[in-house]
Design goal:
Blueprint: H1 2-42, H2 47-71, E1 79-81, H3 83-100, E2 103-108, E3 116-118, H4 120-136, E4 142-152, E5 155-162, H5 169-172, H6 190-200, E6 204-210, E7 214-222, H7 227-232
Parallel strand pairs: 2-4
Antiparallel strand pairs: 1-3, 4-5, 5-7, 6-7
Helix pairs in contact: 1-2, 2-6, 3-4, 4-6
Magnesium ion (MG) binds next to helix 4.
Protein name: histidine kinase
Organism: Pseudoneobacillus rhizosphaerae
Domain Histidine kinase: 20-225
Length: 233
């Protein structure tokens, strides 16, 4: 076990270093972005090049951002939160993107769910990543349904269902592997982030899919001990 402990210490040091570097990369990127935008407006000749530079910069930003989430699981604080409220917030955040892509965002949220102990922003990130993938799986539009409910006495579920192109049996095994993507402009990090965050919450992330029918991602999380229980026990 000594060896194991030392290994995980080293890992977290590397993780911290990586998170620090990722963070430091972002600041110069922001300043680069500003100057390229300035150039874009000033010179008609180089407009196209500037456009390419901006989209490449955005790509670096996306990868670094997803990497940051992976690298710093330490600094998170868990609080009791209403999952339905978190989902409603995410739905407003992503609403415009859905409309642009001809997607109808539906939701069926159960009443009176117990709270869960979670890092709100991380859970939002998971749901955003799942909905983004669902949108990208339906290039011709369709419906995405987000549902919540009780899985059993102590666990609730969050489901994101799409009517997209689905995932083949062979590909299901690869989900969550870093850089696994079937998209031209994918990073292949989104699901890895989801798995990592749900693991941090001691939850489960499951997937069910049928080619050309659609896909359901289901998150199962333990509900918080209610205040009442805490006082009486
Ligand atoms: P990215 O979205 O950048 O490709 P992800 O880790 O988010 O990376 O997803 C990895 C791969 O899993 C995707 O490229 C896609 O092939 C598959 N995938 C994920 N979600 C869905 C979905 N809802 N429907 C179909 N395929 C999906
Ligand atoms: Mg994705």
């Amino acid at each position: 076990t000594d060896e194991l402990i030392r290994k995980s210490d080293k890992l977290s040091l590397v993780g911290q270093l990586a998170a620090g570097i990722a963070h430091e990369i972002r600041n110069p990127l922001t300043s680069l972005r500003g100057f390229i935008q300035l150039l874009q407006y000033k010179s008609e000749d180089n407009k196209d090049y500037c456009g390419i530079m901006l989209s490449e910069l955005d790509r670096i930003n996306l990868i670094v951002g997803e990497f940051l989430i992976l690298a710093k699981p330490h600094m998170v604080q868990f609080n009791d939160r209403d999952i339905n409220q978190i989902i409603r917030h995410v739905l407003t955040l992503i609403g415009t993107q859905a409309i642009i892509n001809n997607i109808h965002l539906d939701h069926k949220l159960a009443d009176e769910l117990p709270t869960i102990s979670c890092e709100e922003n991380q859970l939002k990130q998971v749901i955003i990543n799942l909905i983004k993938n669902a949108i990208e799986a339906m290039p011709n539009g369709g419906t995405i349904t987000v549902e919540t409910g009780m899985h059993d006495e102590n666990h609730l579920y969050i489901r994101v269902t799409d009517e997209g192109n689905g995932i083949s049996k062979e590909m299901l095994d690869k989900l969550g592997e870093p850089f696994y993507t079937t998209k031209d402009h994918g990073t292949g990090l989104g699901l890895m982030v989801c798995y990592k965050i749900i693991e941090n919450h001691l939850g489960e992330l499951k997937v069910q899919s049928e080619i050309n029918q659609g896909t359901t991602f289901e998150i199962i999380l333990k509900t918080s001990i209610s205040n009442k229980e805490l006082v009486t026990s």
